[in-house]
Amino acid sequence: MGLNDTVSAERLHIGFFGMRNAGKSSLVNAFTGQELSVVSEVRGTTTDPVRKAMELLPLGPVVVIDTPGLDDEGELGALRVKKAREILVRTDVAVLVVDAARGLSTKDRELMALFEERRLPYLIAYNKADLLSERPPLHGNSLYLSAVTGENVNLLKTRIGEFAESLQNEKHIVADLLRDGDVVVLVIPVDAAAPKGRLILPQQQTMREILDHHCTFVGCQPEELPNTLAALSGKPRIVITDSQAFGRVSKDVPGDIMLTSFSILFARYKGELAEQVKGAVALSGLKDGDKVLISEGCTHHRQCGDIGTVKMPKWIEEYAGVKPEYTFTSGGGFPDDLSGFSLIVHCGGCMLNEKEMRRRTEAARSAEVPIVNYGVAIAHIHGILERSLEPFPEVLEMLSDTMAV
Q1: What is d(CA 140, CA 305) in angstroms, rounded to the nearest whole number?
Q2: Which of 25, 109, 133, 405 makes a 20 to 30 Å CA pair with 330?
């Protein structure tokens, strides 16, 4: 993957929802200009969500998702509906596709209520408008269009683009901590767990943002850090490390240089750093037999010394002096019922969009289960969480208040 590619987690996710035979798949194909979904007169042709990451003018990088009909029937239909609802929690903008001749159904209205409950921006696309003899006036977030003739498909893109613009807020991974010309040192272990021939996404994205803001980065492995720091003509603005090297790196970085991790930066970037820091404090309260969920947003081959299934349990047990029971999930898997867990330890979520990470964090908060990500947990276990939060004084103050209680 090139440095200039936009990863799926950073793309606007546009979900097309509705009843069977409303013409969702035809509209998705017209919207994307591709034969993305199979189209048929048979109701329920789309059996699983179909995703496509693409550049879509004028919107830019997006992920378009076609979902099964939410009125699908039978046991298999129920599974399809469940899959469609799972997509809902990862959607940034929803399009409710309605057969213009039939109008809104009860299930359509239930779906609209769900959108509103989740505060999800949505448009109602009255498809097959070319078949209407007359068109009652529409208001607000509704429009007539036709996947067959192409009528108002571009208008749909424009309306979604307006939503997308309103969703955009100025977010930074690290650029807001830098000044033009600053040097950043990135500590990147290259070991058995590192993907061969490439860097992982948080490292790529951080590098790109540093370059975009006219700063310089120097990369090294943990054992090369002392020589790298000595070779620089001046002090770097900040050192950013892979979480697994936190313990070693913290000993080599002088106290007057900011130090943090990719994982902590991305927790802030996706909006849940404060909640993650609260979760770190809960590590010391674990007891023997407590249930701990260790969850990762991506799927990969488990290796000897895997961070999720091997290293994190080892570090937790050494730190807390207890033997919890672990449940492991990966990819899209995340339990609906969190009530039995005492703690959730989550990866950095680089393969999950902000919407999904916020959903998981909110689910934990609602269930009153502390949640912490790998990087924050590792920093806390090594006794350097306060130092790693120095670039973020408001979160550091919150940690001090929490520790004082």
Answers
A1: 55
A2: 25
pTM above 0.70, yes or no: no
Each residue's pLDDT tens digit, 196-217: 667 887 898 899 999 999 999 9
Look at strands 60-66 and 50-56 and give their pairing.
Answer: antiparallel
Distance CA 325, CA 40 (A): 49
Torsion angle of alpha carbons 27, 33, 37, 38, nearest 10°?
90
Q: Say how far apart CA 72 and CA 20 lie, in whole Å.
A: 7
Q: How far apart are CA 262 and CA 240, in angstroms?
A: 6
